[in-house]
Predict the structure.
Amino acid sequence: MQARPEKPRLAWAVTGSGHYLEECLEIVRELDDVDLFYSRAGEEVIRMYGHEPKEIVPEGRIYRDRAASAPPVGLFYRGDYHTLVVAPATSNSVAKMVMGLSDTLVTNIYAQAGKCRIPSIVLACDAIPEVDTPAPDRMVRLWPRKIDLEHTEKLKTFEATTVVETAEQLSEAIRKRLAEVG
């Protein structure tokens, strides 16, 4: 395990969604003291959209979903992070968070952040009944299912979790949180 940082950092988890991906990457690049955690699908999607996972945070640490026990959760136990951002968050990841499943790196660090009372900010991709979203080669119109919308609403009730529905709301929630810890 790497040396503990001098001060707690921001942990940013990327799941396998292209919705708001470019906006999220713009926000990440503007931040200092951020480490990235990729789900397997998140790492695939980053590449599908033309990005190299290691180049997004040149000064930060990168963690990938490659071990069954998700060893990076220990970084949350020792106080390396003050905040977890999950953005963009797929309907699959949101459903797992709501159900308490911790079977990926992202859902595991979300659960452990909550158990360590580390606030989380989640940009839920399926938050409105109809959305236009970029696929790697074109725009696509989607209609999230009722269950996806219900999971997003349920996640909004979780302690220490702020759910946002747009990149603008995400940016504002991060700014607010950084002011609290700064």
The CA atoms of residues 32 and 59 lie 8 Å apart. The two ends are 26 Å apart (CA to CA). The chain has one domain: 9-181. The longest strand covers residues 81-89.
